[in-house]
Amino acid sequence: MIKNREEIKNILENDGVIAFVTDTVWGLGCLPTSEKAVKKIYEIKKREAQKPLILMSNEVYHLLNYVKIIPKTGQKLVKKYFPGALTLVTEKSDATPYYITSNMETVGIRVPDNEVFKEICEIASGHVLATTSANLSHQPSAKTYEQALENMSGLADLVIEDYGHCCKGLESTVVGVFGDEMRIFRQGAITIEL
């Protein structure tokens, strides 16, 4: 489906930032190993330093290295809602750099249900992207390719076409799982009852 696979790979491997469609809203991302690219994302968005990025992949097992053992409650949520509009926040492992988590001990992980995004993860080395939404902070999220182009033109190194795989336009639900405790940080596309 994606025609410019080599270009995407090269951008990512050279500290670049890409904008892409997901199942919820448009995202902005880079390789989690590139501190330079992560800094670029914060600059592009004018994002507050204390707001962490989240890690997204096409398969949950690519993300497991970045977190400590997911508590049982979290595992149930993963089984039920991955791939989908759920971001699970849990304790990070040493593999997750602090420049992604804003020096916090936790990290959000997600597996979007979108064919274009899945293909981007196959292209990316390590199959994981450090991500946030493709808009300036405190502005509405991009819901179409046109909006993403408008928001990110001249800022992101590349805005990847959605090839007709549009997003639903509602942000993911963010749930934190710490031991037996579950905390809802944001009700989004999925409604979760405590």
What does this structure look like?
- The longest helix is centred in the N-terminal third of the chain and has 11 residues, at 35-45.
- Strands 7-1-2-6-3-5-4-8-9 form a 9-stranded mixed sheet, sandwiched between helices.
- The protein contains 6 helices and 9 strands; from the N terminus they run H-E-E-H-E-H-E-H-E-H-E-H-E-E-E.
- It has helices at 5-13, 35-45, 72-81, 98-101, 115-123, 145-152, and strands spanning 18-20, 27-30, 54-57, 86-91, 106-110, 128-133, 158-159, 173-178, 181-186.
- 43% of the residues are buried.
- The chain is of the alpha/beta class.
- Helices cover 26% and strands 22% of the residues.
- It has a single domain (5-186), classed as DHBP synthase (Alpha-Beta Complex), CATH 3.90.870.10.
List keywords for this structure.
194 residues, alpha/beta, DHBP synthase, 9-stranded mixed sheet, 26% helix
Kindly summarize this structure in a few lines.
This protein is of the alpha/beta class and 194 residues long. It has helices at residues 5-13, 35-45, 72-81, 98-101, 115-123, 145-152; strands spanning 18-20, 27-30, 54-57, 86-91, 106-110, 128-133, 158-159, 173-178, 181-186.
Draw up the topology in text:
Layout: H1 5-13, E1 18-20, E2 27-30, H2 35-45, E3 54-57, H3 72-81, E4 86-91, H4 98-101, E5 106-110, H5 115-123, E6 128-133, H6 145-152, E7 158-159, E8 173-178, E9 181-186
Parallel strand pairs: 1-7, 3-5, 4-8
Antiparallel strand pairs: 1-2, 2-6, 3-6, 4-5, 8-9
